[in-house]
């Protein structure tokens, strides 16, 4: 599943750019994993996602670090199955995980590479916020479509 | 040991995270080292080094052929330059002659000096105009600076000219201001110095005075400059005069040939034959 999402991201969503920012399906997937599964699992998923993204992009070390960090941060929004959280609470935690994972991933990537030649602060705050916004919109759409059932009945 | 195990179990998530981060940093470090790129660059440099030396070694064998080719190119370019320079010089000389306002060269024939023989005794010029261009024997050859000589023989395309600096050449000349007349001749030696004989000692000849051809000359037009008085030496009855010739024979390239002056009636009255008058 992770491989499919990574391929979709690399050859699909990566080309859908708005103001030089594009939504990140891998981050949404990692956020979903972080919310659903325990911390170690989500961190490992992040690491694996970093390996795949690195292989596809050619900068393996940086992507491994970025995805691992993003997943690790997102795992703070983990909602155990036995918790009595309502659907809205679960959704909010999922969206928060998406935003935080996206921001952390962007911060690490901005620190390591700068393909557009813009300043790191601009990249972190403008592109990072834009990507987080796009991720949030995509997460809402996906959640409305089919993730909601998974989150509730996990 | 138990505490250590407890610590590991308690913070296993962080440990796992740091482990992954360490692996990521290790990969980043390996990418920065870029061993493969360095190997590639080194290989390219080595290959270029070998190729450069092999090519420079080969160039030694092809040097002779290359030199011959360059020589041919140089020869071709040199001939072109010479041809263009010659044409430019000819054009310049032609303009110079035609631009002289003291000489009405409209009826004159222009020719180029194609051969010359200079010595301290016997001098001769050949021009590239013959009877096809209307050149006839005894025509006067001149340039704006002065008298050059007279045509002595003509072929279809060329003519031989006896210059002023020939021992057999003689022409009647007249001084510009005092009108003293004499016969110009050249007795060998320096090509820029000629002598004028038969000037009476009573004449008021001065140094620097200009001599021109006289109307008494049987072949030459009147008023062609010849030279200026350089030295006057009094003899018993006549002056012995040296004059600087106006024409620089060493740089002569283009000349004008004046139409023939022969007037049958004048010839009949004076009784001179063609050969006799040709001397004057």
Please, could you describe this protein's structure?
The complex is a heterodimer of chains A (154) and B (280). Chain A has 154 residues and is mainly alpha-helical. Chain A has a single domain (2-153), classed as Orthogonal Bundle (Arp2/3 complex 21 kDa subunit ARPC3). Chain A is built from six helices and no strands. The longest helix of chain A is centred in the last third of the chain and has 34 residues, at 120-153. Chain A is globular. The model of chain A has no long low-confidence stretch (mean pLDDT 78). With 280 residues, chain B is of the alpha+beta class. Chain B folds into two domains: 2-33; 106-278, Beta Barrel (Thrombin, subunit H), CATH 2.40.10.340. The longest helix of chain B is centred in the N-terminal third of the chain and has 64 residues, at 35-98. Chain B is rod-shaped. Classes of the chains: A mainly alpha (154), B alpha+beta (280). The A-B interface holds A 39-40, 43-44, 46-47, 50, 54, 59-62, 64-65, 68-69, 72, 75, 112 and B 12-13, 16-17, 20-21, 23-31.
What's the topology here?
The complex is a heterodimer of chains A (154) and B (280).
Chain A: H1 2-11, H2 25-36, H3 39-57, H4 60-74, H5 87-112, H6 120-153
Helix pairs in contact in A: 1-3, 2-3, 2-4, 2-5, 2-6, 3-4, 4-5, 5-6
Chain B: H1 2-10, H2 12-33, H3 35-98, E1 109-117, E2 124-127, E3 140-143, E4 146-154, E5 159-163, E6 170-175, E7 181-185, E8 193-200, E9 210-213, E10 225-234, E11 238-245, E12 254-257, H4 264-270, H5 274-278
Antiparallel strand pairs in B: 1-2, 1-12, 2-5, 3-4, 3-12, 4-5, 6-7, 6-9, 7-8, 8-11, 9-10, 10-11
